Amino acid sequence: MTTEPKSAADAFADGPLKATHKATVKDGKKREKRLDRLRLQGFWPLYAAFIALSLRPPLSEEHVSLMAIRGIGLVLALLGLGMRIWSLGYLMKKAELATAGPYGRTRNPLYVGTWLIGCGLALLSAWPFNLVLFSVYNVMFFAVYRLQIGIEEEMLTSIYGEPYKVYCDNVPRFFPQLKAWRVGDVSSFSLSRAFKNRAWEPVLGLSVLLLLQVVAWGLAWPAIKGASLSEAWANFLAGGWIGP
């Protein structure tokens, strides 16, 4: 018979929670596969729209406020990348429950990072399409990831039991809290662990998507509008990829 921990200190008295058995959730894998297909079919066409609707460089917008929106987009995308690398540096998949670093502020920092990257790329598109894409992205993101997070919470509850519920009571599900929750001895950040957890994937992915947006507004659209490739390329090299 197990005894429910009376406090967070009791739950984490022996340090980070170790995974002692596998998750047992009915149809968990099947449900995850369906969500994977939904993400592939829904989000990648949306990312393609972020690129296709990068009609002009940020500094070519008519008003400073519109330029600022696109600048905010770049900042959000880079913050999201930083959040994902930070999170992956604490993550020990299938070994222990991550509660340190960003996991002391939100239970899903990896998804927060993904959300920020998507919001940033949407805002980097040209006005007014960037606000439309931003709205569509957020509706899709929270519809899909709400289901994904629900499945993962079922799995983690089946692995860690009541101590995981104590963690959930102290750390918000998604939007980070300002003060980090930290109880007992917890694992520290490791950059090598982050890259073992494939941190290079978001770095490469964001780099490629940003490059494609730059190519779209600096080369592709000028050529579509009638400039020769040589003219478009010369203008690109002269700084036309960022503004007039």
Describe the structure in your own words.
The protein has 244 residues and is an all-alpha fold. It has one domain (26-208): Four Helix Bundle (Hemerythrin (Met), subunit A) (Up-down Bundle). It has helices spanning 8-11, 28-52, 64-88, 109-123, 129-160, 162-170, 191-196, 200-224, 229-240. It is elongated, with a radius of gyration of 21 Å.
Brief rundown of the structure:
This protein is mostly helical.
What are the defining features of this structure?
single chain; 244 residues; mainly alpha; Four Helix Bundle (Hemerythrin (Met), subunit A); 63% helix; elongated
Detail the topology: elements first, then pairings:
Elements: H1 8-11, H2 28-52, H3 64-88, H4 109-123, H5 129-160, H6 162-170, H7 191-196, H8 200-224, H9 229-240
Helix pairs in contact: 2-5, 2-8, 3-4, 4-5, 8-9
Task: Give Rg in angstroms.
Answer: 21 Å
Termini separation: 71 Å
Beta content comes to under 5%
Name of the CATH architecture: Up-down Bundle
Work out the count of structural domains: 1
Q: How helix-rich are the residues, as a percent range?
A: 55-70%
User: How would a textbook summarize the main sheet?
Assistant: none
